[in-house]
TrEMBL record, chains A, B:
One of its GO terms (cellular component) is plasma membrane. Belongs to the SLC41A transporter family. Residues 149-212, 213-271 form the CBS domain. The lineage of its organism: Eukaryota, Sar, Rhizaria, Cercozoa, Imbricatea. It comes from Paulinella micropora. CDD domains: CBS_pair_Mg_transporter. The gene is MYN1_Chr_396. This is Magnesium transporter MgtE. Keywords: CBS domain, Cell membrane, Magnesium, Membrane, Metal-binding, Plastid, Transmembrane, Transmembrane helix, Transport. Homodimer. SUPFAM superfamilies: CBS-domain pair, MgtE membrane domain-like, MgtE N-terminal domain-like.
Length: 466, 466
């Protein structure tokens, strides 16, 4: 968690653009003191973005003009590519100081992006304490609490008095991620309680920590998935959650600001899945080149295309009935479109319900049953529009009847599959988002076309329509 | 922001279920003291959920057993429907005390859900101070900072010393939403600076607030959209952001915990739009009945159906070429499917880019141009698979050529439209999410079928294939 520092309230993108332009002018003119004055009231994240939008050649120059403590904070906010540029252009002493002073969690995020060779060199040059912490964090799996946490927290002992504890907070405030959540550990570093700075400043200064702390603590373990960490902080309105290892020893904390980024990333991932786009590591679609973009999209397109090839095969195999009544083909897009839309709706609400944990209260079978009913009901509603239209454009009662009957069958099936497949994937511990709208829609195509043309053949044979 | 209180770390849904079952058994047995012991270590949000899952008849009974200060917190976490049940079952004195003690922001959220008659009665019975605050908050438009904020914050004066300020914090800690962000105002309540409790405990106790506060403050105004408030807190890693009125007077603060819920709600809204589901007020799809569900889905389905009816009309108008070569129809689903998927991908990344503000750096025209190129490139990649398949299944070079040519045209157009339409909507200050995957997919259908059958007719006439 960063400390608050001001900036006048204008839209942040306008502000950044303004700062970036002035910065460039001043740097070219060599007015370095003016740069310092310009950047003084600007928030670190805005400075980082302004530096990121400068030409590469002057980025290091601008960065060197920052105050040392601010430089570290700004560096943590820079994009990975700008961080790398700076590493190449700064002197090795400057780099070392920077990397040494970064928060452990931000350092690990930087190391994730750097080439292994550079990481090894930087690790070797860190102080023993920071090296140990960094190596430890790098050892946890990606997207777990262990990777997300920081090891800079304040731990107190039960025998401390409130005033002693406040003195500890004062003394360590500059070097820690948050001073608002305080943790109490025993001699073997087991987490025994928590208290907030709010509690600490309001209680009698002589009371002992043991008496004012809360003994039952919500904690996560180092291998807890980052999404679950985010849910815990969100659910309980925490500012931070402690992370313990397998022996219940306190090893770090995850703060709310990191969790907000996780929530946004997970939402992007779900949305991308709903649009058949593979989410990247750093979620920066708009900074990747055309080939990276194509790579992230073509796999899903090919899978869906293969399914669609099945639809072509089904139609080709039913060409007898199509030869008889060419106009049957006019309703293929409409029927598979309606089915696809109903199925997409069902999978959307179910996938979102799974990730916000709201579906759990309902139970799997009731959720599927409700969606099937909704699909049937929606199909009947749509029928009112489709039947006369198909009858008129299709030019025969047979086309109207075939389109109407299959419409209701398709929407019911699509809604059932749209609800059941993500739930099945979730049960099998696969990502339910893989069964999102594009997949459901395409699966509906094959089945829908088959139902429609079979119904038409059957009507043609049995009722001698026409 | 709530104060931390413990609960042993098990999965929250298991915990809630366990608590709920034990609670019900104990209530039926009349062991009220055991209920108090059971609930002592449980977090308020978990108690709220456990009470919500009890039969309606015993909810009020369980609620009455809570300690008074805890009852208010639990009440704030209850679902709107359970809050209403309790209002009907508690005595009017109990209700009044409850509503009087709630945070203003949570009270406003409750009043939003209650019938106007009940709100008027409750408002009349509130103390003058709370009535004034509530009426003021209810006056702001929904989904703005004014509606989201709380008026319970700590304001200091510049002439206070750090130790005086700390005394004020101590004294008002119980009655305020957060003690970690402190605000400095002048005599006419204009916001002149901010400081954090972290700053306050670390500075010399004799220094004056004027010397230690930050004068440039990021603030939002009462009519700022809640999504922008969320972006500000997320961007700057704040715990709270001050809200000022038109005269720059400090009127409230929005805290990070409320902002997390906004971020999740906005993500749900975007995801629902991507699945052609209308998002409800309270986002609780799984608690609404079948007719509410149908109402939230049928409007989009009808709009999309109307567009699909256009596709039928296009095919019907081109039936001459279909009569000539029936197998052309076999590739209609494949072509519009591929185009729809590429268009859905483009609209997904653009809409997400707009809502996370990542697209702004790129510029509108470059974003569209990149997507068009991506569409062309992806079309050419898919062509490698489609051409031989269409030639073979279609049984003639004409079908293969028509399918291949139109495939590339359709994917390019779909990607362009998928990027351009959300951006156009954003420019026109409409919600870009309306131009999400389902709409783009359906629009692609009409145009795609037209291009395909026109290409086939043209090839048939000019090259005498067959």
């Amino acid at each position: 968690m960063k400390q608050t520092k001001g900036a006048i309230a204008v839209s942040s993108s306008e502000l950044v653009e303004m700062v970036s332009q002035q910065l460039q002018t001043l740097l070219i003119a060599g007015s370095y003191d003016a740069v310092k004055i310009l950047l003084e009231p600007v928030q670190p994240v805005d400075i980082a973005e302004a530096i990121g939008s400068l030409p590469r050649t002057v980025q290091a120059l601008a960065f060197r003009l920052l105050r040392k403590d601010e430089a570290i904070e700004v560096y943590e906010y820079l994009d990975a590519s700008v961080q790398q540029t700076l590493l190449e252009r700064l002197r090795s002493g400057e780099i070392l100081e920077l990397v040494e002073e970064m928060s452990p969690d931000d350092r690990v995020r930087l190391f994730d992006e750097l080439p292994a060779k550079v990481v090894r060199r930087l690790l070797a040059e860190l102080s023993p304490a920071e090296r140990r912490i960094t190596a430890q964090l790098l050892g946890y799996e990606a997207e777990t609490a262990g990777r997300l946490m920081t090891t800079k927290f304040i731990d107190l002992k039960e025998f401390h008095s409130a005033s002693q504890a406040l003195a500890i907070v004062r003394c360590r405030a500059r070097d820690t991620e948050t001073v608002y959540s305080l943790y109490v550990t025993d001699r073997s570093r087991h987490l025994t309680g928590i208290l907030s700075l709010r509690d600490l400043v309001t209680v009698d200064p002589d009371s002992s920590i043991a008496d004012v702390m809360t003994r039952e603590v919500v904690s996560v373990s180092t291998d807890t998935d980052q999404e679950e960490v985010a849910r815990a902080i969100q659910r309980y309105d925490f500012l931070a959650v402690p992370v313990v290892d397998r022996e219940q020893r306190l090893v770090g904390i995850v703060t709310v600001d990191d969790v907000i980024d996780v929530i946004e990333k997970e939402a992007t991932r779900d949305l991308y899945a709903a649009g058949a786009v593979q989410a990247g590591d750093e979620d920066d679609y708009f900074q990747s080149n055309l080939f990276t973009i194509a790579r992230r999209r073509v796999v899903w397109l090919l899978i869906l295309l293969a399914a669609n090839a099945g639809t072509s095969a089904v139609i080709a195999s039913q060409q007898a009935v199509l030869k008889e009544i060419v106009l049957l083909s006019a309703f293929i897009p409409l029927l598979i479109g309606a089915g696809g839309n109903v199925g997409a709706q069902s999978s959307t609400v179910v996938i979102r319900g799974l990730s916000t944990k709201r579906i759990q209260n309902l139970g799997v079978w009731r959720a599927i049953w409700r969606e099937s009913l909704a699909g049937l009901f929606l199909g009947l509603l749509l029928l009112i529009g489709v039947l006369p239209w198909a009858w008129q454009i299709g030019g025969s009662l047979l086309v109207g009847a075939a389109a109407g009957i299959s419409l209701v069958a398709i929407t019911t099936l699509a809604a059932t599959a749209g609800a059941a497949l993500p739930l099945l994937f979730d049960r099998m511990s696969l990502d339910p988002a893989l069964m999102s709208a594009p997949f459901i829609t395409t699966a509906t195509d094959v089945v829908g076309v088959f139902i429609y043309l079979q119904t038409a053949s059957w009507l043609l044979v049995h009722f001698r329509f026409h």
